[in-house]
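Form 7-S
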Amino acid sequence: MFRIESFKKAHIDRAREIALENYENEKSAVVGLPNIDTLPDLRPFADNGLGKAIFDNGNMLGFLCCEVPWDKAFGSASKGTFTPIHAHGAVLENRSIIYKRLYQAAAEKWVSDGITYHAIALYAHDSQAINAFFTYGFGLRCIDAVRPLVNFESALCSAVIFHELEKDAAEQVRAMRVLQTAHMGESPCFMRSLPTDVEKWLKRAETRDSRLFTANLYEKPVAYIEVMDDGENFAAEHCDMKNIKGAFCLPEYRGKGIVQGLLNYVISALKSEGYSSLGVDFESFNPTASGFWLKHFTAYTNSVVRRIDECALLDVGEQYMQTAAKAPCVIPA
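Output:
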């Protein structure tokens, strides 16, 4: 009989073992993931009181934790939280059932605290976990993918020139960034941004530890790729790995091998500097990004989300029940 209790510091050592085993399972299916010996600190997840652990006869079978919630998650009016890939795990036997039981217990706590936007990063090849959360109302939103720094064949016209921009030259990709922002606001993405967000991005591109690579055709930038150390998870932040944080090609130059050639240029540059892997994260509902990145990279995480209806909140639910109680009883003839 399963027993579920709040995730505590006493559970951390076993949780770390399970999480590392889960990572190794994914690594066996994905070429390019780095070797990992340690995970990020799990103590904050014990401190915030939002996690759950599951046991059978005293043996810990899995755990599910989340980060401290924040308001206006994903631009909504809801409070949301996120579970990174290292903040959950389960043994292989009865894995789907374990995750379902964990989420049922954790979600009860989260919603009681007003957290109605739930996001969880799952390993892309963990079909049992994916099925468990899809069954419980989650849908795919984001993907992390990786590739070893190995070049691939790409035919390209000789007029295209690749190079890396200087730190103060981010202005050269302004027009493409504006178009990329507009594209993300269209269907089916609907990730709309303010015009000021482009200016903020340009300023960050000049001040943060990012690198911009461009493809120029007749001295005109027609595509760019932004690369950074920072990633979306512990594997992506490994010292052997760099991460693509933005990319765009002008529509009229797509399908001509220009972005493929630029990606090859980036791979060659990073490989010469001693890196071994390149990661990228993108929205699954961005057809342009999904179609391109999944040709050249292998997905290793699927981040799924669920938005709980507002009627589940206690105060809203109480108002509904009070209104229903006052409504006249009508008996059909």
